[in-house]
């Protein structure tokens, strides 16, 4: 019971003083001051919502392992390691994980912990004096909760649907919700967010979800359901009216991810980070830097998680302007010699403290929207209309636009689109969902295990991917408590 109390419905908001738009907090557990004494003013609710935004960071820290590592984009850096750190990652990479897997449980627990924070805010909205603030916070909470459940349903399938604070007794009597019920709830939350959220904020609130953020996520939900007729009007509204756009000019792709250009016009929503020893810095530079590279790559050395596959690296031509920002093929060692050791570079900036980077992590980019709109048009038989939107992304990357004569069929367009999404959105945790959406997981991974030289280093045979591994199992701890069938 203690585990479920901790991870699903216990009130665990951390509160304190908002120091700036960077959403940094002077942390103090709510248990020390009491929920009742905390919610005294409208400002207290704003502070609680900041904690909900900060709560996006914990599940994201594990998400790469459940998405990119399970796709054909990344792999382990070493096939022979016996480290307890890497064995669970190998199980994800080879699709041999079980319901007792550590990273699966951590993602689940961190996600439900933040859903609990969000539900605590929504259950007390009637105490907010300002009607406009009440609407805004309800919209923000609805967006964040929908975001979490969208990730859960895509990763796990059927999960628990908790939309309010619940008692210990209620928790033990819950059953998982059907995927249909979950998607309906997500759509309802996002529709509410679209209606309640503003289209933009002042400089002190940059990074909060807007109605455009909610429309973008709702469009992605409809795309996931293959309801393209519902998705297309949302994509069109975003493209024509949101003000979002592809960055252009010198080093445009690099500028999308630059710490000097955060929340730029291409970013519709991001998980925000702040360096400076505040406990809300990004860990990804250290996670992804080569192991034993010392401080030649990043201060504090690297773990070399999420190592790009050789096959993915080979897909970038020398003319692709995304290449230098997306990954590095190695680094200069102590004697100035080049050490070939590829690693993810997209989320790099200098850090004074290990795992304390400044880089935000984009959740929805305008390039993603353009490509999904192109997909939707193609899926409803409007391939010729779709091509310019695919080409916008290609041309920004320094590649030649496809000519209509080069598209021989709708399926051919899909192949080109998936390739472009792979190169544009590499390491942004999108590739797994694309493979799943098109039913390509088993074929793609089986081919990878056969052709990527790294996998031949294993001294044991690698089995073909089983269909029951396409969705993650409910963590065994939850199964034991709720008597669910895994």
Molecular structure report:
By secondary structure, the chain is mainly alpha-helical. Among the domains are: 1-138 and 439-486, Serine Threonine Protein Phosphatase 5, Tetratricopeptide repeat; 284-359, no CATH class. It has 21 helices and eight strands. The strands form four sheets. It has a two-stranded antiparallel ribbon. The chain has a two-stranded antiparallel ribbon with strand order 3-5. A hairpin with a 5-residue loop joins strand 6 and strand 7. Helix 4 (57-66) packs antiparallel against helix 6, helix 9 packs antiparallel against helix 10 and helix 17 (383-396) packs parallel to helix 18 (410-424). It starts with a helix and ends with a helix. Residues 343-480 form the RagB/SusD domain. Residues 42-222 form the SusD-like N-terminal domain. It is found in: Cell outer membrane. One of its GO terms (cellular component) is cell outer membrane. It holds the Pfam family SusD-like_3.
């Amino acid at each position: 019971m203690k585990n479920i109390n901790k991870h699903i419905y216990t009130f665990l908001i951390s509160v304190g003083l908002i120091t700036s738009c960077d959403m940094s907090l002077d942390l103090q557990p709510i248990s020390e001051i009491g929920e009742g004494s905390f919610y005294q003013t409208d400002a207290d609710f704003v502070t609680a919502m900041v904690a909900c935004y900060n709560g996006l960071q914990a599940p994201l820290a594990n998400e790469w392992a459940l998405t990119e590592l399970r796709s054909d984009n990344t792999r382990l850096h070493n096939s022979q390691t016996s480290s307890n750190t890497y064995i669970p990652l190998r199980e994800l990479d080879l699709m041999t994980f079980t319901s007792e897997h550590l990273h699966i449980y951590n993602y689940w627990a961190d996600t439900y912990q933040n859903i609990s924070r969000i539900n605590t805010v929504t259950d007390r909205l009637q105490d907010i004096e300002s009607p406009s603030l009440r609407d805004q916070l309800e919209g923000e909470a609805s967006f964040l909760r929908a975001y979490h459940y969208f990730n859960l349903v895509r990763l796990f399938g059927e999960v628990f649907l908790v939309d309010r604070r619940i008692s210990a007794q209620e928790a033990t009597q819950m059953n998982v919700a059907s995927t249909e019920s979950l998607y309906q709830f997500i759509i309802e939350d996002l529709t509410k967010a679209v209606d309640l959220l503003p289209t933009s904020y002042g400089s002190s609130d940059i990074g909060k979800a807007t109605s455009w953020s909610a429309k973008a996520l709702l469009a992605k939900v409809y795309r996931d359901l293959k309801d393209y007729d519902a998705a297309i009007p949302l994509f069109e509204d975003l493209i024509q009216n949101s003000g979002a756009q592809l960055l252009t000019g010198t080093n445009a792709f690099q500028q999308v991810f630059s710490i000097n250009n955060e929340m730029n016009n291409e970013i519709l929503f991001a998980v925000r980070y702040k360096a400076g020893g505040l406990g809300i810095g990004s860990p990804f530079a250290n996670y992804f830097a080569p192991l034993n590279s010392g401080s030649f790559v990043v201060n504090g050395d690297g773990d070399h998680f999420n190592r790009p596959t050789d096959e993915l690296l080979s897909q970038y031509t020398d003319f692709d302007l995304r290449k230098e920002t997306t990954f590095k093929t190695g680094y200069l060692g102590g004697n100035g010699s080049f050490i070939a050791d590829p690693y993810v570079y997209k989320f790099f900036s200098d850090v004074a403290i290990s795992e304390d980077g400044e880089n935000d992590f984009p959740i929805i980019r305008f390039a993603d929207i353009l490509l999904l709109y192109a997909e939707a048009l193609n899926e409803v038989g409007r391939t010729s209309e779709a091509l310019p939107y695919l080409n916008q992304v290609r041309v920004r990357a320094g590649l030649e636009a496809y000519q209509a004569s080069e598209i021989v069929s709708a399926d051919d367009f899909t192949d080109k689109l998936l390739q472009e999404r792979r190169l544009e959105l590499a390491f942004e945790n999108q590739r797994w969902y694309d493979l799943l959406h098109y039913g390509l997981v088993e074929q793609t991974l089986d081919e990878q295990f056969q052709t990527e030289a790294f996998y031949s280093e294993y001294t044991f045979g690698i089995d073909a991917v089983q269909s029951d591994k396409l969705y993650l199992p409910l963590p065994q701890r939850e199964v034991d408590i709720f008597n669910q069938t895994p």
